[in-house]
């Protein structure tokens, strides 16, 4: 699936709920379903700076695609990074770098996050795109 197709699916999932408390529950459920990161990547080297919570992000490059794993010490943040992973993991570096990730605005996420969580979201996106850029340069 393309990034846009996955984004559209996420938007549809969120559209099923009118109340933002239900949408938060969906984000929390996504965080709970995030596969665990290998403990060896829960080190300062993989911490994303700019996040209020601790977020560890690891990326690997296989068969021309970037695969992400992550974890966070905050369940809402874990849900947010889980959404990003569902959209970007398994995609080519070019696709990741050019993704506008408009689902974030389409579901109304930014306006329902605190400024520090919004900054953390931007930091996560930036780090994922940096990984893609590095893998593209190495290939």
What does this protein look like?
This protein has one domain (3-138): Sufe protein. Chain: A (Alpha-Beta Complex), CATH 3.90.1010.10. Helices cover 53% and strands 12% of the residues. It has a two-stranded antiparallel sheet. Helix 1 (3-15) packs across helix 3 (75-88), helix 2 packs across helix 3 (75-88) and helix 3 packs parallel to helix 6. The protein is mainly alpha-helical and 139 residues long. The protein has six helices and two strands. The chain has helices at 3-15, 20-32, 75-88, 93-98, 103-106, 115-138; strands spanning 55-62, 65-72. A hairpin with a 2-residue loop joins strand 1 (55-62) and strand 2.
Features:
Sufe protein. Chain: A, 53% helix, mainly alpha, 2 strands, 139 residues
* CATH fold label: Sufe protein. Chain: A
Average pLDDT reading: 94
Q: In DSSP terms, counting alpha (H) and pi (I) runs of 4 or more, how many helices?
A: 6
CATH architecture: Alpha-Beta Complex
Largest sheet composition: 2 strands, antiparallel
CA-atom Rg in angstroms: 14 Å
Straight-line N-to-C gap: 22 Å
Spell out the helices and strands N to C. Answer: HHEEHHHH
CATH top level is Alpha Beta
* Strand segment count: 2
Principal-axis shape equals globular
Number of domains: 1
β-strand percent reads: 5-15%
Instruction: Provide the low-confidence segments as ranges.
Output: none
